Structure formats: structure tokens, C-alpha cells
Amino acid sequence: ASERLGPRPTMRLPPTSVTAAKSPAGTIDERYLSFCVDLGMIAQPTRFWNPDGSGETVGERPPFDFSRPRLRRLCGALSPAYLRVGGTEADRVYYALEQRGPQPPPPAPAGYGTVVTGGQLIAMGEFAREAGLEISLTLNAGWGSRAGSAPRPDGSAGAWRPDQAVELMRFAEEHSIPISVYELGNEPNAWPLFHSPPLFVTPESYVADLAALAAVRDVEAPAARLSGPGTAFWPAIGEVPTLLLPSLLRRRLPRLAFSFLPRLAAASAAAEAGGAPSPCRADILSWHYYPALSDRSPLARAHPATPPAAALA
User: Fold this and answer.
1) Nearest Cα residue to 287 out of 255, 262, 257, 312
2) What pLDDT does residue 19 have?
3) What pLDDT, in 10s, does the model give residues 1-57?
4) Is residue 138 a contact partner of residue 185, using CB atoms and an 8 Å limit?
């Protein structure tokens, strides 16, 4: 991939020093260090990065096999931990909960891209229980979950609809799938780049969607916590829109929402101060921290001064 993309400049980072205090400043949850399985490796047809950097492979790999005994033993040694099941594909997936067998599922309905079956979710739950893991699941907040909703006055796509989330929460309860965290969508500040047509939702509208999820959670899974917004963030260059600002100004990119996290926090506080009936903030504030970019990433080519992962190894 490096030869194909050509030589890349590296960024010299300033030296960093750390001084340890005599007493701990605080404690973290014993499950703080956890791991993830990308939904692109589970949902069908599978969709994941091509190792040679040439886009994605679609349908070329079998779905993730949760039944492997060695995998269960190795993951069990890492417990207690969270198993996050999410990623970009989370906002394209349809939950075909009635299908339990090993046969390939039917094509996804309009507005969706891939399918995860009830049988796969049951296998995921059995794996998590045996390994001593709790699941953090990213719910679909993409186009399929907004079908039938009118665009909003601020230019956002229509309101998120909880229909499939309700069915999924009930299914998880029925089959003892240990989902303790539900996340609303994956990297909403980058949705216009990941979805076709471009999916645009402002931080303020995301807060309204989060309140809709909270209302559903309170009824269907009251013990579960909500996580969000899971934005993409680079410490040296900021959020995705900041990284792509030059191209955006040349009108080569769709509309993007800037300062997603600060605006979300302000909108959450304003909604709750106004007496919103459901919580308008996540129980867990999440963002995706990218200290470097893979050579395979198109974003690395858009901002060549960003250090590739190999340069920081």
C-alpha cells in the first residue's frame, strides 16, 4: 500500500513527559480496556477493509464465527470487558430477527445495505456469556432507520425511528443476550461521507434522536445504558470536517456539521433545562480517538501531513 500511495511526509511530534503522582487521582472501571468486533465482519454480505488498501471487500469473507472454542478461551482470559459490536456498517444493517438458521439471509430491504440474523445475535450472546463479556451494541441510525420521516427544519435528515430498536431490545431480553450498552449510530459527524445519498444530521437533531432512544430504553431495557455520539476525532487535526475543510470550501464534499461534541453538549443541556420528558444526553460520552491514520485511509491522502500509523509505531 505504501508503494501504491507513494512516499508520505511524517509529522515530528513534540516530546511528552509524564509525572506520576504519589496517590491515584481516581479509579477506572475494570472493564475500561475492552475490544470490538466490527459489524462489517458479521452482517451479510460481509464488508471490510481490503488488506491491500484498494477499498473494501464485499461478500468475499464468511461471517464472523462466534462458536470457535479457542476464540472463546482467549477472550475469556480478557474478561471482565465489554465487547463492542459496531462500526460503519452498524448504520446500514437490518435486523432479520426471525431468521435463525445458517442459510444466507434474503437481501436487505430498501434503505439498508446488509443483514444480521437472529441466529447470529443469539450466537453472539452465547459467546459473550461464556467469555464473561458485556456487549455494547451500536444501533442503526442510518437512512433505513429514518424511512418515512420528513426532513427537519435545520436541514437534518428525518427523525430516527425506534421500530427496529424496540424489536432488537425485546429479542435480546428473550434470548438473554447480555447487551448492557446501546450506542446510537457510528461517527455521525462523518455520516455525509459514508452514506449515499449523504446523510446529514446536526448535533441538535442528534440530541432529539437520543431522547427518542432514551424513551424506548426506559421501557424495553431499563438497566441498559446509552452511549454516544461516537464521533471521529484526530488529536492533531480535530474532527472530520476540519480535516476536509479545503475540499469542502471548493464544494467537492457534502454538507458537514462542525464542532459536533461541543454543540451536542450545549443542545443536551438546553433541552433538559427546558423540561424535556426524556434524558437528552448519553450515559456514556463516546468518541473515536485516532492518533494516526492508516495508509489505506482516503483521509490520509486528503491530509498528507498527518502521520501514518507506521510512523508512530
Assistant:
1) 262
2) 84
3) 333 444 444 556 677 787 888 898 888 888 888 999 999 999 999 988 776 666 677
4) yes
Strand partners, 139: 184
Distance CA 92, CA 237 (A): 28
Omega prior to 254 cis, within 30 of 0: no
Distance of CA 79 to the CA centre of its chain: 22
253-293 pLDDT tens trace: 678 888 898 999 999 999 888 887 777 789 999 999 888 77
Other C-beta atoms lying within 10 Å of the C-beta of residue 261: 16
Angle at 89 between CA 250 and CA 85, to 5 degrees: 130
Closest CA to 182 of 229, 131, 145, 239: 229
Sign of CA dihedral 185, 188, 194, 196: positive
